[in-house]
Design a protein that fits this description.
Strand order of the largest sheet: 1-2
CATH superfamily: MFS general substrate transporter like domains
CATH architecture: Up-down Bundle
Radius of gyration: 21 Å
CATH class: Mainly Alpha
Oligomer: single chain
Distance between the termini: 21 Å
Strand content: under 5%
Shape: globular
Number of domains: 1
Number of strands: 4
CATH topology: Growth Hormone, Chain: A
Largest sheet: 2 strands, antiparallel
Helix content: over 70%
Amino acid sequence: MRTEDPFTGDIAPAAGAGGTLRRQPKAVWATAGASVVAFMGIGLVDPILPSIAKGLDAAPSQVSLLFTSYFLITALAMLLTGFVSSRIGGRRTLLAGLALVVSFAALSGTSDSVGELVGFRAGWGLGNALFVSTALAVITGAAAGQDGPGPGGGTTRENGGRRGAATAILLYESALGLGMACGPLLGALLGDMSWRYPFFGTAALMAVGFLCVTVFLKEQPKPARKVALLDPLRALGHGGLATAAAAAFFYNYAFFTVLAFTPFVLDMTPYMSGAVFFAWGVLLAVFSVLAAPALQRRFGTARVLAGSLALLAADVVVLGYGDRATAVLCTVLSGAFIGVNNTLFTELALGVSDAPRPVASAGYNFVRWFAAAAAPYLASELAERAGARTPFVVAGAAALIGAVIVRAGRASLARHAPEAEPRPVATTQDGAAVLAD
């Protein structure tokens, strides 16, 4: 099967055709496996937020700072990731990030106050930024298929690299979805014994990831040009990337309102809350890997993204106004929309501009993680001042603003990323696929 290349509009074998998604080097699987654990750390605290608040005698707004410190440092550190990795190499950057996560996750479990825990989560965020942003670049560089057959029947590294990037994004989103699904489950299982145990468990798993990366990943070639600290900000001068980042900012506000504030609304035991967010994570994984590419090929990125954001807006508002059963259903259902959004935003961030992928990714993440830092704290403050429904109304409005930005900027997105609008495919007499006029 041959499909339109998601970055150039060329006709190329579909991602996953011929088993390219499964047949990857050990280095890719080692990095993807460590990425699963890294993403587990985001949702790990979800089912134990009420337990942490009770154990440390803290208010929900204070506990929400666990997310705020984590993502604020993650956002700022995005300016450093390319600067560091272009100088010491991708492998060393990954290992440095993993070492920081192991250290600060373990320290988080020893905290005796909310202040200590918030501080250790900030250090965890620095390590996660170094690891996660570099992991995507490493997986993209190492993914199989980079030297596959080009659209003309020959073999070109350029077109193979594009297919490798498409495969890498699916692998990365698979790791994200699996980590988001398993994080709450692990948090619930260990957190039922003590809120401290999930942090120690994460530290142990990341230590295993550190060993796997050490053994299986060889040093990646350094870029010909070192990345400057301000390069990610300069990359945002590109209209398409700026549009994607601005829309992702509002989307992430809605996303992390659901992730960080919903556990307080559900008010369930760690086991029950973990089960809800496990189901949420499963939908996120399925829709990010399977549904998003299919919808993208059928309707185009901009149309699917705007529609998914609008549906997410409606979902979170209903979540805020419904009873507990409705809130549970809407929480789980939001995983489907979030999965689609994650994949399409990642593809846009990597393919919409001419900037090197690590630089474009850093600039995009620098913008969007600020919303992830603000949402948990603002949601708690809004709930305390204006009622528990208000955070979800604001989150719905944010998702809707993201949809409007995508629709308003679709020309900029389409101009630089041909997959933003679908293009018809015709077939010649010999069965070769070509773009229809």
